[in-house]
């Protein structure tokens, strides 16, 4: 009994010893395949993740490009708007400059008109007077006509002046020149009356000696020799140092 059992035990042990290496190799192949499958799975996942990331990156880039394009369009619009505003500003500046220039011109015109309307200080026959612009112009125009030799027109202008401005500072001088215009027209009686009126109103006037001499000349023309001598005597007496007094003395020597 013991002899038969031992051989079989030995044979079983030998079989087991021979089968152990092949079983170990089988286990190694399964693990490798499993590792490869795991690796492939991870690679596929990584690939999918990369594709998704690339797609997302592409979308972000496209979004950024659209944003940049929008910003560029907005920038161009802003440039155009800025150019338009700059043009409007330049136009407004030109308009403002034109308005300021016109306003300045209008101000000058108004000032000039106001000056023409404001009373003015003038000197006539050594006397300072204040006159209105129209008053001054009318007097100067009448004197200019007288100097041109048109005694009739000058007499009319001076008479009109005296009626319009009876209290003018020009009145005495206007009356004196009216007498001269009337004398030039040979209206000796009118001239005589005008010179007498002048002397009665302004005996201290600068032209009083000349007026008295002219009055005596009117009397001579009217054949009033006696009256002429009285006027000349009065001239020499009242204004002895005047040039008219020199002429009066000469005239008296002739009349006597």
Automatic annotation (TrEMBL):
Keyword Cell division: yes
GO biological process: FtsZ-dependent cytokinesis; protein trimerization
Coiled coil: 36-102
Organism domain of life: Bacteria
Main location as per UniProt: periplasm
Signal sequence interval, chain numbering: 1-24
Domain Outer membrane lipoprotein BamD-like span(s) in chain numbering: 134-256
InterPro entries: BamD-like (IPR039565), CpoB (IPR034706), CpoB_C (IPR014162), TPR-like_helical_dom_sf (IPR011990), YbgF_tri (IPR032519)
Domain YbgF trimerisation: residue ranges: 56-121
Pfam (any one): TolA_bind_tri
GO cellular component: outer membrane-bounded periplasmic space
Protein family (similarity comment): Belongs to the CpoB family.
Functional note: Mediates coordination of peptidoglycan synthesis and outer membrane constriction during cell division.
Record's protein name: Cell division coordinator CpoB
Taxonomic classification: Bacteria, Pseudomonadati, Pseudomonadota, Betaproteobacteria, Burkholderiales
């Amino acid at each position: 009994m013991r002899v038969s059992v031992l051989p079989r035990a030995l044979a079983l042990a030998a079989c087991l010893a021979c089968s152990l290496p092949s079983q170990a190799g089988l286990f190694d192949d399964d693990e490798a395949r499993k590792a490869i499958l795991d690796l492939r799975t991870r690679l596929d996942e990584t690939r999918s993740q990369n594709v998704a990331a690339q797609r997302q990156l592409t979308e972000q880039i496209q979004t950024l490009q659209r944003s940049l394009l929008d910003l560029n369009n907005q920038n161009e619009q802003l440039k155009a708007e800025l150019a338009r505003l700059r043009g409007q500003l330049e136009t407004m500046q030109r308009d403002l400059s034109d308005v300021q220039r016109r306003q300045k011109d209008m101000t000058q015109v108004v000032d000039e008109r106001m000056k023409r309307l404001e009373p003015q200080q003038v000197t006539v026959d050594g006397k300072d007077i204040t006159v209105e612009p129209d008053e001054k112009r009318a007097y100067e125009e009448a004197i200019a006509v007288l100097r041109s030799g048109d005694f009739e027109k000058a007499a009319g202008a001076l008479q009109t002046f005296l009626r319009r401005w009876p209290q003018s500072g020009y009145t005495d001088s206007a009356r004196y020149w009216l007498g001269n215009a009337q004398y030039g027209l040979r209206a000796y009686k009118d001239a005589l009356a005008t010179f007498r009126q002048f002397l009665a109103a302004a005996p201290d006037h600068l032209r009083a000696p000349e007026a008295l001499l002219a009055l005596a000349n009117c009397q001579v023309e009217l054949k009033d020799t006696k009256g002429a001598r009285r006027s000349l005597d009065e001239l020499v007496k009242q204004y002895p140092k005047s040039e008219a007094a020199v002429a009066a003395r000469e005239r008296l020597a002739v009349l006597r």
